[in-house]
Specification:
Strand content of chain A: under 5%
Distance between the termini of chain A: 53 Å
Number of domains of chain A: 1
Order of helices and strands of chain A: HHHHHHHHHH
Number of helices of chain A: 10
Largest interface: A-B, 55 and 55 residues
Radius of gyration of chain A: 19 Å
Number of strands of chain A: 0
Largest sheet of chain A: none
Oligomer: homodimer
Structural class of chain A: mainly alpha
Amino acid sequence: MSARILSASVLIPVVLLAIYLGGWFFTLALAVLVVLGQIEFFEIVRRKGYRPTENLCLGLSLTLLAIQQLYPQLANGAFVLAGGLVCVSLLFRRQPPATISDMATSLLGLFYTGYLPSFLVQLRALDGLGYLLLLTFACIWASDIGAFFFGKAFGRTPLTPISPKKTVEGAIFGTTASILVGLAGAALLGWSLWPLTGVVFGLLVGVSGLLGDLTESLMKRDVGLKDAGNLIPGHGGILDRADSYIFTAPVAFYFIDFIVLGRLPLP
Amino acid sequence: MSARILSASVLIPVVLLAIYLGGWFFTLALAVLVVLGQIEFFEIVRRKGYRPTENLCLGLSLTLLAIQQLYPQLANGAFVLAGGLVCVSLLFRRQPPATISDMATSLLGLFYTGYLPSFLVQLRALDGLGYLLLLTFACIWASDIGAFFFGKAFGRTPLTPISPKKTVEGAIFGTTASILVGLAGAALLGWSLWPLTGVVFGLLVGVSGLLGDLTESLMKRDVGLKDAGNLIPGHGGILDRADSYIFTAPVAFYFIDFIVLGRLPLP
């Protein structure tokens, strides 16, 4: 626990500074996490005997991050082409030739550890001071902390065999904490229809964070690992810390951009 | 060969009619192909022992096709959320729990046999009469026919162990045929800088068609199959016929929309 707190006290100020500075500062800080997380993902996958096209995925993930920063309106089209490139790159592998799993896990790596988190760049760029990104992170933190302490004290019912330590009580309380933070944030930021949009935002972030967490647990469980890595003392690997942010990134971005800011591009 | 010609003489008028009518007619005709192709893909994948989330992928692929028709500007964001849904849906599978491969092949199925071909809907919608889609198809047909006959007559050098019948000579001549058709089409349609844009378009379509073809061969080879199915007499399965169109769809759409029509959304 003390290693955990020590690591957090170094990392949290760095994260807050990157959010505050925004722009390329934030994108570069995120790029470090994306690269480390993707390397961990491919380590997990290689333990199953698959041979994904790791270097190409890393290069394409960094390219997608740069595109999210420079030309966000091109990011989705760029992913389509990047995903196609990943598939066809495996055609040129000999001895032994690539398999369906090599191709599928390469695409999953690009999507899950590269493309999904890249939406944090667009989320940061939505406002000048990073309040929207900070609110998203605050919801995730509230959900994690709420689920951890409440689950420890009152958790009885196991949530899923994938992640034996999680309880239904913890998940419910974590999501409630995320909703309360979402509600407070929506009121402070003066979102239109704030009681409704705040609750929905907190719910979406809480649930997508939990699902991201469980997705990584499923992957680790499949290869019989406890932690994805041991990079941060007391916290396991990067993916063990960053998994909650992965699905949340596009969900929070599209909800705020389309619904809260009213920029749903309908004709 | 005669079953092949008979099937073609029924299918080609249907394809031409769907292209001519456009709109929902085209989207529905494509939806039939997408569903059949995706079922074949998942049959291939199940032969490797993986258990992808087939019904969800089919439902999401049809939804993505409908979104390409109704709100094309939302299609890319919808794919991000659909891909996320596919991943998290596997969290709820018990006995035995889902594996990384189940998740990765589900995502590959959604991407390769659902999302990539859905760009044909946007390609058809670019002009009123379907000339741009017809030109794309004409390039693929020229490439296929050119590679087949020239490869048969002069092919000596094997192209790749993935697909033993393909030769370097066939691939070069097929791509040349695609470039010639692209050049003619660009001249007829009066594309700006037509000699350049026509050659690049023909090259992109020829190469992406060949790569789509080889990608499907890689998958079949991985499970020891000759044809992906036996739906069309003399033509193998749907994927055996449709594989050339899969990567070509987004490549042709983005090239025409961004470069030829000059709608690259840069600030």
